[in-house]
Design brief:
Strand content: 35-45%
Order of helices and strands: EEEEEEEEEEEEEEEEEHEE
Number of helices: 1
Radius of gyration: 18 Å
Structural class: mainly beta
């Protein structure tokens, strides 16, 4: 039975469901041939308050993190920026058409919009940010699409320019270097492509620069999901691998390949490193990406 609080859009190949009362979170990204929901499923738990925390119970589905990911205080924003950004967990205006769900969120003086368009086995995403205020504003964005792996799945990541820079790791027995080349993390974890073969509880967050375009996702012998975007629009990728090590009290299993504007966990650190984007008053910024299911069915990854 369809949840009446959700907006559902489907083609003959895939189905997505969006929660307007929860920041237009995508709660379902389902392959209609196999029945697999690629997202980490679960109830939409979380507070709309400014002091809301994003922990294991809240870590579900696909959210849009704007204008920060981790909480911070930035002098050009009038209020402290909350954990996981200002959109998740809050009511969002959504409009459904034949093949598209348009979601619109007002964040301070900024209007954040996402067009989610479903055609066949592909989701086409178009984003627009409009500064409706009178002063320039700094911002960052990260797509936070949490995936659940299964036995037989293999991860792939193509298009990273050089090494991935480690932001943090939990559960690592040996000393950890500050960077690594996919898919080898270190001698203890020489191949990150098999999410079911990681020894002990472990998690890491890393960032990489995108050369020309990035393709990342999961494949097995029957099905696949692929995220693709151009470096000219989103120059970085965030890699989140959590094999039962976060959070400490109620750890979960999940992973994500995150297109992002900045290799940083919050807007302050992005600004200090020169990666914050500035949107002048009255101006717009746009970017696009695609998510595709079963592009190469039956072909195991070698990336």
């Amino acid at each position: 039975m369809t949840d009446p609080a959700l907006i559902t859009l489907a083609s003959d190949r895939l189905q997505v469901s969006v929660a307007p009362t929860f920041g237009a979170r995508v709660t379902e990204l389902r392959d209609l041939a196999s029945g697999r929901n690629w997202l980490v499923s679960g109830p939409t738990v979380g507070s709309p308050d400014n002091d809301a925390q994003y922990l294991g119970e809240q870590a579900r589905g696909w959210d849009e993190c704007f204008p920060t990911v981790a909480p911070c205080v930035h002098p050009d924003w009038p209020e402290p920026l909350r954990d996981h950004g200002e959109i998740w967990g809050r009511r969002t205006h959504c409009e459904l058409s034949d093949a598209c769900i348009l979601s619109s969120s007002q964040v301070g003086d900024c209007l954040f919009q996402r067009w989610l368009i479903v055609t066949g086995s592909t989701i086409h995403l178009r984003y627009r940010l409009t500064n409706e205020g009178k002063t320039s504003l700094p911002w960052m964005w990260s797509q936070h699409c949490l995936l659940r792996s299964r036995t037989g799945d293999r991860l792939f990541l193509q298009g990273v320019d050089g090494a991935l820079q480690l932001s943090g790791a939990t559960g690592q027995a040996s000393e950890t270097d500050s960077s690594f080349h996919w898919p080898c993390f270190n001698a203890e974890r020489p191949d990150l492509r098999d999410p079911q073969a990681q020894p002990s509880a472990w998690a890491c967050k890393a960032y990489g620069s995108v050369a020309e375009f990035c393709e990342a996702g999961i494949r097995n012998e029957q099905e696949s999901i692929r995220f693709r975007w151009e470096s000219s629009q989103m120059p970085f990728v965030g890699v989140w691998l959590n094999h039962g090590a976060w959070p400490a009290d109620k750890p979960v299993h999940q992973l994500a390949f995150e297109p992002t504007t900045a290799p940083a966990d919050d807007l302050n650190h992005a600004a200090l490193a020169g990666h914050a984007r500035w949107l002048p008053a009255g101006q717009e910024d746009e970017w696009t990406l695609t998510i595709q299911l079963n592009e190469l069915p039956g072909r195991p990854t070698t990336a």
